[in-house]
């Protein structure tokens, strides 16, 4: 790990709490959609048994990447860097390391006040709704210490924990509670990684009322040195999902089901789209409507099962599927 230090030479500023503060250290907003930049505002409500807080340490979980903390007047800022468990895309650049812990040091936050500590980062690489914990430690001089690092296990209520870690719930789409009422499904199709594979883009076509068959696709990039294969696709929105290929034979467009799946060669990018390789949703329970999303589970030979969400685009025009 490496450390980078910054010192802001300004007067110390503390924010007095206007009302009753939360008993635990929490985030001001605790939910956000995947593949978005999130401003994590940590609220520190009190000191250590009456002693003033002089240092705040926040460990960043896997998937909260490219982090940048906000400096605070009167506090020294320390950024601890390390390796990520996997590689993330930062505007076309593959990044495998970055900040893993942020420390605000040398300040003075009296017990009777509260303050906020801010770090901005991207929530990336999640294929399902996930709760991210940010273990946090308050130091109060050389004697006092408060640790917020407990994480609720399956079936356990987080409110029963004595010292729960601050958490953020990463959602697959941006509901109104998380993103101020912006488009409900705008994050569908965001890139996710599974082993050496990166799944991104794609969509399904809106369907006419009463229709039972729909089409769609996505993009799979293999960044590894060995071949993989898309074996099957499932979706709760359809009775079954088939892998199909459109080919031109004697000037006639024909479609066939690919029983053996679709090869994803090493170093290659395979695009599933109409008119070529694509997904066919059979026995659709409710016709896909533009603006909705369709969840799918992709099964790869080596990368295993991957959950993904496809947006529903404009209705298709042209050929019919039998």
Automatic annotation (TrEMBL):
Chain ranges of the YncI copper-binding domain: 24-170
Keyword field contains Signal: yes
Keywords carried by this UniProt record: Signal
Signal peptide extent: 1-23
Pfam name, any one: DUF1775
Signal is among the record's keywords: yes
InterPro entries: LpqE-like, Lxx211020-like, PCuAC_sf, UCP037139, YcnI-copper_dom, YcnI-like_sf
Protein name: DUF1775 domain-containing protein
Organism lineage string: Bacteria, Pseudomonadati, Pseudomonadota, Alphaproteobacteria, Hyphomicrobiales
């Amino acid at each position: 790990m490496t450390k980078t230090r910054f010192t802001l030479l300004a007067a110390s500023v503390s924010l007095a709490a206007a009302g009753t503060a939360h008993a635990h250290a929490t985030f001001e907003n605790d939910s956000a959609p995947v593949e978005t930049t999130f401003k994590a505002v940590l609220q520190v409500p009190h000191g250590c048994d009456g002693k003033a807080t002089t240092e705040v340490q926040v460990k960043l979980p896997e998937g909260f990447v490219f982090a940048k903390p906000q400096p605070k007047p009167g506090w020294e800022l320390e950024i601890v860097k390390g390796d990520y468990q996997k590689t993330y895309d930062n505007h076309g650049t593959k990044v495998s390391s970055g900040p893993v812990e942020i420390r605000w040091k040398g300040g003075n936050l009296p017990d009777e006040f509260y303050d906020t500590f801010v770090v901005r980062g991207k929530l990336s690489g999640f294929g399902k709704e996930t709760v991210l914990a940010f273990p946090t430690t308050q130091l109060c001089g050389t004697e006092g210490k408060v640790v917020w690092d407990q994480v609720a296990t399956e079936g356990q209520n987080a409110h029963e924990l004595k010292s729960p870690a601050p958490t953020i719930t990463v959602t697959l789409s941006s509901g109104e509670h998380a993103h101020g009422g912006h488009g409900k499904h705008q994050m569908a199709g965001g890139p996710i990684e599974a082993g050496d594979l990166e799944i991104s883009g794609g969509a399904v076509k809106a369907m006419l009322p009463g229709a039972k068959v729909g089409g769609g696709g996505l993009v799979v990039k293999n960044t590894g040195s060995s071949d993989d294969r898309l074996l099957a696709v499932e979706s709760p929105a359809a009775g079954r999902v088939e892998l199909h290929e459109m080919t031109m034979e004697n000037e006639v467009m024909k479609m066939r089901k690919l029983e053996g799946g679709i090869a994803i060669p090493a170093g290659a990018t395979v695009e599933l789209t109409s008119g070529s390789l694509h997904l066919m949703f059979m026995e659709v329970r409710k016709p896909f409507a533009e603006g909705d999303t369709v969840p799918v589970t992709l099964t790869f030979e080596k990368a295993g099962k991957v959950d993904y969400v496809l947006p529903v685009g404009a209705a298709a025009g042209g050929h019919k599927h039998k």
